[in-house]
Amino acid sequence: MLYTIRKFRVFMVVAAILIISTYLYIDKPYSNYDINHIKEIDNKKIEEIKDYYFKNINISNDNNKYIKVKKIFIKKNQTLGLILGKLNISTPRLILKKFKSNCLYKLNVKDEIIIKLINKKLVSIKRKNKNIECLYESNNNKITKITKTKNNFKEQLVFFNNISNSFYNSAIKSGLSPNEIMLFADIFGWDIDFSLDIRKGDSFGVVLERIYSNGKKYDKSTIKYAVFKNKNKIIEAFRYNNKYYNKKGTPLEKQFLKAPIDFYRISSHFNRKRLHPIFKSVRPHLGTDYAAPKGTPVYSTGDGIIIHKGRKGGYGKAVIIKHGNIYTTLYGHLSKYHKRIRAGKRIKQKQIIGYVGSTGYATGPHVHYEFRVRGVHKNSLKIKFKKRKKLSKKNINKLKKIHQTNINKYTWLRKNYIK
Ligand SMILES: [Zn+2]
Fold this sequence. Notes:
Blueprint: H1 2-25, E1 55-62, E2 65-73, H2 80-86, H3 93-96, E3 112-118, E4 121-128, E5 132-137, E6 142-147, E7 153-162, H4 167-174, H5 178-188, E8 203-214, E9 217-230, E10 233-240, E11 243-245, E12 265-268, E13 288-291, E14 297-299, E15 304-311, E16 317-323, E17 327-334, E18 336-337, E19 346-347, E20 352-355, E21 366-373, E22 376-378, H6 393-403, H7 407-417
Antiparallel strand pairs: 1-2, 2-3, 3-4, 4-5, 5-6, 7-8, 8-9, 9-10, 10-11, 12-13, 13-21, 14-20, 15-16, 15-19, 16-17, 17-21, 18-20, 21-22
């Protein structure tokens, strides 16, 4: 007997050790963490409103009463009269009158209508959407309107993680939404190429604000502060006037040169409906042409990474450069490339990438220059790049003041996760 108890005890101890060690070594995501308290983030998606018609949601017998509730979502060109007519119910006169508090007179698409009938007689009609609730009751022939108060609220959260292989996966595990990951990548995209530069041991931290405006689902996030450790280099970003700066007030976003060459004449503007000079048909011209003598040096208009060097159809000899996370520039019709240009290589602003020529479909020597934002062609001459200089002493102090209340969180993040 004693032997069995001892054996049982040993078994219990071993089991306890196993459970504890599994718990400790399990890959716990560093997610949903707030410095002061751990908060559950509701990922439940708000049920999509389905577009159905005349759905019975409840039929019951109560004290010999036959109760029927019908739920309808309003479609285009539907009126209450039309809906009630289909149910063989005559529309109460009050509803048909136009007066200020008659919130059943005009309906919006996707409004929810709940019709209650007892023994086939109309009892009530309710109209619901995210802003109002409106009720008609037949017993007193009255319409009551309740305007919902919008309960917008903000929540500040901290996310962080070590990066094992992919930045995206680690960011998702930390609890960031895909949208928030994009915001983060846009901030650091000027200094880090998220597909090439990530190394084991890199880590990141974000302090962000989620704004909830309808029910529980947050629909907007703002990154207040972000820190990224990449190849032992630490970059911090503080939000100030909708832009991001480091501690010294230097903007993280880099600027572009107006043109890829020094002395030029614009021979063709950006035009979505241009008649092509060679093909004589309407073909959009999604760039700007800078005419210059053959051999004139062509510069990169910004810091970036070369993602293409080579012949590219009508563009002839072309170079494409990726700048930060969202911009790319293209330089076409080059006569030759600069000897140090290779795909995958980092390049500085105003570094020579090649020389003016007329390779591909070109009528004379010129550079065809394209500017794309998230893959979409933009007229580079119309984009206003505000000169973003280093912040003045006064503005640096303002920045510091804005972030003062969060300083302990930033310090905590850096101390614990950005080592
Ligand atoms: Zn062109």
